[in-house]
Structures are given as C-alpha cells and as structure tokens.
C-alpha cells in the first residue's frame, strides 16, 4: 500500500501527468453548462447526479443527456465564444512548471473535445495530448450523436487511455489528477492519483485519495523540491 510521501515522490519524478478537465482544470462541468445554454439544465443535472451515484453506466448517462440537449454545432461554438470555460486558479502556472520540468501533460476528459481543445490551447498543451468525447453533427450543423468508439465514452475509459499512453510513449511513471470517481479509478494503471477538491469536494474521492489537495499551489510547492 502506497503512502502519502510515496505519492508525492511519484509526482516529483513523473514522466507524464494527466488531468481531468471538468471541475479540475476548469471550474465548471462542461455538459451541464452546455445544457443550461440550450435551456435544458435541470433535466440534465438530474441525470448527471444519477450517473455520479453509479446507478447508470457512463455511456448510458452521456447518451441520455445528449439526447435531451441535442445541441447544434452553432450552439457549441456560441457557448465557447460567449461563455468560455473558466480556468481554475493556479492551473496555468502548474502546467507551465510541469512543461519546464520536461514532464508531459495530457488532458483526459469525459467531456467534449471541442471544449477541451479550447482549454488545451490556453494552457499550451498540444492537441494530440487531448483525449475526450467527440460530438457528431450533420452537414447542416444539427446534432447527430457522439463517437461511441472513444475510450472516454466508456466507464473505465480514463484508465484505458493511460494504459495506451504507457504503451505508446513507454512511460514508466504516470500520475492522474482529478476531482471524480472516474479519475480515482484510473489508478492503476496510473502509478499515483491526486484528488483535487478546489472546485467541488466529492467525499468518496477525498476518503480514498492518499493525497488530496484543494489548490494547485500545493502541487507547485512540491515541484520546487525537484
């Protein structure tokens, strides 16, 4: 069983750090913001609650929520323009520091690639380091579903992405950082998990995480020891 000090040591010598996006890198939950923007916020929040409580699979919950939202390409673009995702304080500095230390940074999200790419660009994270769900649209821009073949559309998908990255890049040491149960479940294959409660505290994650932080400043401080 790993300890807090071992988790911190793994973080300091990590070759790659993977961040969840919703309620971790950004302050909000992207799907809930999209639902609010499309006027169906309450109905979607209820399904999100059920999904978080584990009473339906991630893919079923995603499918049900998107079937209610049925957002057009134009609505998604307008959301990003009018209500761009709000970065969590300290994330920009942390990602810059990780890059300075030659630690690769990835974003792994159950949210939507179009929103996550916008976030990645702000943080100078290459777009091929983004793993998220892909919305599909018809030629006229109407909603046509989502790409169900993406690993992030499945329960346990974040762990699948980490296993794939380990194989692709021969990483020995990877760390997952996030606020939710799907982030916690990605360790293993991640070598360590750091729980983040700066935007929302999920009790089951706080209880199980060996290292739980409420500010990215705590992680920056640890990197100063390198």
Automatic annotation (TrEMBL):
Q: Where are the catalytic residues?
A: 20, 22
Give me the reactions it catalyses.
O-phospho-D-serine + H2O = D-serine + phosphate; O-phospho-L-serine + H2O = L-serine + phosphate
Q: Determine if Acetylation is one of this entry's keywords.
A: no
**InterPro entries registered for this protein in UniProt:** HAD-like_SerB (IPR050582), HAD-like_sf (IPR036412), HAD_sf (IPR023214), PSP (IPR004469)
Q: What is its EC number?
A: 3.1.3.3
Sample GO molecular function, one term:
L-phosphoserine phosphatase activity
Q: In which pathway does it act?
A: Amino-acid biosynthesis; L-serine biosynthesis; L-serine from 3-phospho-D-glycerate: step 3/3
Q: Which cofactor does it need?
A: Mg(2+)
Listed under GO cellular component are:
cytoplasm
Coiled-coil annotation reads none
Pfam families documented for this protein: Hydrolase
Q: What domain of life does the UniProt record list for this protein's source?
A: Eukaryota
Keyword set, alphabetical order: Amino-acid biosynthesis, Hydrolase, Magnesium, Metal-binding, Serine biosynthesis
A GO BP entry: L-serine biosynthetic process
- Identify its protein family: Belongs to the HAD-like hydrolase superfamily. SerB family.
Q: What does this protein do?
A: Catalyzes the last irreversible step in the biosynthesis of L-serine from carbohydrates, the dephosphorylation of O-phospho-L-serine to L-serine. L-serine can then be used in protein synthesis, to produce other amino acids, in nucleotide metabolism or in glutathione synthesis, or can be racemized to D-serine, a neuromodulator. May also act on O-phospho-D-serine.
The record, for NCBIfam families, names:
HAD-SF-IB, serB
The protein's name in its UniProt record: Phosphoserine phosphatase
Originating species: Cottoperca gobio (Frogmouth)
Please name the taxonomic classification of the source.
Eukaryota, Metazoa, Chordata, Craniata, Vertebrata
